[in-house]
Amino acid sequence: MAFDSPLFLFGFLPVVLLTVLFLQYTGRWRMATFAIVAASMAFYGWWKPAYLLLLLGSIVFNYLCALALIRRRSRLTLAYAIAGNVLLLGYFKYLGFFTDTLRMLGMHGIPHLSVLLPLGISFFTFTQIAFLIDTYHGDTRERNFFQYLLFVSFFPNLLAGPIARHAELASQFAAQRRGRIAKDLAVGLTVLIIGLAKKVLIADTIGAYADLVFNGAAQGLPPLFADAWMGALAYSFQLYFDFSGYSDMAIGIARMLGIQLPLNFNAPYRSSSIREFWRRWHITLSRFLMTYLYIPLGGSRRGEIRTLINLFLTMLIGGLWHGAGWTFVLWGAWHGGFLVLHRIWLKIADVPLLRIVAVPIRLFAVPLTFLLVTVGWVLFRAENVAVAWTLFQSMAGLHGFAFSAEASLLPSAFAWKRCLELLVALSAIVWFAPTTQTFVKEILPDEAHREKLDPLTLRLMWKPHALYALAFTALALVSVTNLFLAQDRAFIYFQF
Amino acid sequence: MPSSTSNSERRYLQWFVVFTAPLFVLLCLNYFFLRNAGELMTIPDILARQQDPKTFCLYGTALYGDTYRYKLDTLMLRRPEVIAIGSSRMLTLRERFFSQSFYNLSNTVSNLHEGRDVVEGILAQAVKPTTVIFGIDFWWFNGAYIPPTPYSHRPEPLHQFEGYFLFEPFAWLREGKITPKDYIQTIIGKASPDFCSIGIQALKRRTGFAPDGSQYPFIDPDLQPGLVEQPFGEIDQIRTGVDRYTYADRADPRHLEEFFGLIDQLRSAGIDVIVLLPPFAQPIADALTEEKGHFGILEDIRKELRKKDVFFFDATDPKTIGSSDCEFQDGVHPGDVAMARVLLAIDQSRRRDGQPPLSDTAGLQATVARYAGRAMIPDPRVTTVREGDFLHIGCLK
User: Fold this and answer.
1) Does the complex come out with an ipTM higher than 0.90?
2) What is the reported pTM?
3) Would you tell me which of A143, A305, B52, B285 could form a disulfide with B280, CB atoms 3.0–4.6 Å apart?
């Protein structure tokens, strides 16, 4: 059940909200929590009831391991617990990739093995690994199984994040939100509508153009130079609005239930370096990789060379986490490589001779970063390495140039002008429009996160007024109409 | 402060409800519009109404179109002696042309896998027909246009009702497909008192499937000259070799094998099979002849059919049946009169082979003579609108 499915929006969510609100309004807080857990189980089991057992099994295993860690802080127990999680993820997500790779290396006797990937397994596994490590370090403690079950299975962020830490949510689950139900509902509903509009009106629209180019390349139709770049840019924007829209919806839904999820997205294409990009894109995953992988690997404490290796390895694993395929490994390597280069650059940019080069690079840092990220997304989107290679060749002009609709490879289907207009409009939103958290500041966790705003943005910021209610009702109606009339497209991050 | 903050948010939510309420009202109206138009009827309900001998209902949906299920279920009810199968190019073969009971099962086949679904559907009937007229399109055999793939069973549609249906009337109103007057009249149940219609297309345009499975096309009496940009637009595709007219020298042997397998299956069940290459309008047939160097597939199909010893009639060129462009709906879809001529020509061939005719020959000849030069044979049960020169090619109608 995707957040943008009619079943969720007009069936599941209203029923859950009405039930929880009724129970909270009448002071039955424990029952309300129970209702959220039951809803989360139904939400996950809806896709494949059998995999609900897998989720529950994983939760019970990690809960027992955490209890053991609370009782006795043992490195061995932690290692066993993490290995259990990694094995589970490895079996369901990487078995097919592993056997295929062995077959590719000549071991033809090995059969192709693959298992249907349980939804959200990457997310709930990482959430629990983080919990175990936090428990080991004494940063968090949870003895109440019911609270732990709620923390892991909380449906707004169960399938595709944000990856919350236990300490962030535990106190909220325990709290009673008397006197702020209306505010939570108003803020949550607004953010939910913003997310839905991003997904349905923007991501799905621009995604059609990306599909044309990438699917064409997959079917052996190498795009020309301009088509390939438009396809890559279209995908770059599709992914941005898809994931940003998903994150907004998750945050909005959680907020309607009284829970504030961590921010996951902060205008990443405005970054002036790859390092900054990873502080703005999928913020909670970056935080996980930094806290639970990069730092345990040694971080920057073991010399410069080791730091560079750690950086690269962290991103390589991050890439593989996104998908079991060589394109994801290469995508991780692409980002790891540029993080390494960026770190080296920071060290040498102050050398007097290089200052002449450094000035123009700093001047064009934002578009340059965006360009590198966009090229990387080709690996992320392509069906396999061969298709990605074809697209890279096209982007380098090796399959010919085309700058007009007449010369395009896809003249009838590829609405060139419309795509170009869309890309220009979306660029304006991506680089100049206020982010969701700037517009609805109520979803920011604290004052420290607030940016300095110009007077216009300050005037435009969301307020619980009738005019905003009218504007958001209209936006919701347009989005819902499109949702019903348009082709069904799943959230991209659901596949991870 | 906390209480005033809470109050403003409460008011915000109340405004939301107030602004959203009209949508629910509109969706309810849309529901009644669709229901009254017959768009939400299930196939059994449609059949019950359409196969009632006291009525003549056209079924033309704008939403749910499982033509295969609808037609196979009708076939089960009607148990005809003669069946026509094929693409939309076969849809103007009508029961009144025949001397025996007839059902037009076409518009269910656009490739040979779908042909197999239909043939298996016919063979699964308790009462099998005596004759099947199998209309084929040459592009079904083009491996470059339809790559041969392993057969997989036709998936059953999951839903007959989708949520988006409730929003469609907004789009139709915006696009001018229905007027606000149509919308209101349908809601209050006063849309088309003179005719029996199921579905928006039947209600608004008098187009759809008749009880005999044939289809009545839309005749627009208000069509102005110049609105038809290219009555025979396929010529460009033939010249450039795109889409259905992708160049091919030969028929793909795997497609041929699948097709002849279907013929054998029908014959094994004791069914007489007539293969028909339906007619094109003259400019299309001429373009195909001029480009025959690129369309060797047509001759190859004829050659293979002759080798197979199957009765087939080639009406590709309308001259063979004495038809003209004025008897066509467009470049590829023959009208009633052209199809009546095809049936007369088939009967002539059958007589030469010592087989009985399928039609009431004298009656059909008289009808053809009376309506020669028109696409449609007028039927007051469908429309009282007189056919005009809708192709704008100078037809005197």
Assistant:
1) no
2) 0.69
3) B285
